Amino acid sequence: MxxxxxxxLALSTMLMPVAxxxxxxxxxxxxxxxxxxxxxxxxxxxxxxxxxxSVLGAEMAIEDxxxxxxxxxxxxxxxxxxxxxxxxxxxxVREWYDTQGVDMVTDVLNSGVAIAVxxxxxxxxxxxxxxxxxxxxxTNEDCSPNNVVHYVYDTYALANGPGKAxxxxxxxxxxxxxxxxxxxxxxxxxxxDAVKATGGKVLGAVRHPLNASDxxxxxxxxxxxxxxxxxxxxxxxxxxNSIKAANEFGLTKNQTVVGLLTTIVDIHxxxxxxxQGMMFTEGFYWNLNKETREFSRRFFSKHKGMPNMLPxxxxxxxxxxxxxxxxxxxxxxxxxxxxxxxxxxxxxxAKGGKIxxxxxxxxxxxxxxxxxxxxxxxxxxxxxxxQVIPAAEAFQPMALSRCAAVAKK
Length: 409
Hints:
This protein has helices at about 1-25, 50-70, 85-100, 110-125, 155-170, 180-195, 215-225, 235-250, 265-270, 270-275, 290-305, 310-330, 335-340, 390-395, 405, and strands spanning about 35-40, 75-80, 105, 125-130, 150, 175-180, 200-210, 230-235, 255-260, 280, 345, 350-355, 360, 365-370, 385-390. By secondary structure, it is an alpha/beta fold. It has two domains: about 35-155 and about 290-360, Rossmann fold; about 155-280 and about 365-390, Rossmann fold (3-Layer(aba) Sandwich). The strands form four sheets. It has a five-stranded parallel β-sheet, with helices on both faces. β8 (about 230-235), α8 and β9 (about 255-260) form a beta-alpha-beta unit. It is globular. About 50% of the residues are buried.
């Protein structure tokens, strides 16, 4: 017995320096470098939404953080194209986490990719600030609130504004053109729920593949439905091509087309004559106030286009993350997440933003209507802001959460 006690004492004495070193390391910046990664669509159907714009948003956040806080630690930024493939995205972040010392990944545009990346991020106990993907699964069935934050928008927020507002105008029958994967399915469901809750009805839907080359057969089905509204539960190039084809087919003469995930880059690509009168929900508008204009003009000087909500949200997410690292004095995941959830978000993207227990960052959203050409007074002056949707109303209430981590509390 005495020998066992002596052996235990000796082992504990030997392990004390190791444990102490581990605790000390947890309170520091690993390698004195904070490494951030932007995983996005650089060349595909969503590249104009995020892509190089999101990388620039992250770069601007790092520049502004350094100028304000003059950190003692280094900050590195890497980026990659996930090609809208879940396996490519998850393999890339695994490589980043395992071999390149990446602490946080952001953008992750494409819901299928984001769900896969969230699983790897949780497994590796890193942080994902999702600014690009929309599926509400990320804060419901696939939530991981200790590691994943859904930052900019989701299908619930996108659906409620136009789903309710357009239906209240008497356009109360809907048909959906839906991108056939997690994002499209979520957006169709959430919009259908909003339409029905407002007294409208859904007459049907048709699913199309991501990056579809021809929308003619899908639009013929929408036309045959006689629905007053054709809801586009898609995004990026698919939305642009859907709207172009709808105009060419003459569908817009008798039916209203609503792009459920539409941003200013889509309006710019299509032009005001084609898009005038469209209504949708946005998370950011460059011409909203003095601060948004200053940020956006800086962005424009480098990107030659105004930011939509993805680059602006990526800017905000990276800045908020770096402020939390600075305040915590460490890049330890738990400590940084704690600081991010404790600290309100106030920048060009969001005022009084807050990260909830389910990982959802809540902030005001905006119901916008596209101006007529004669109403636009300068380049990129495209929106009437019809309604500010308060943060508490814009996103799914916590009472409806299907996040197991929240339900256990």
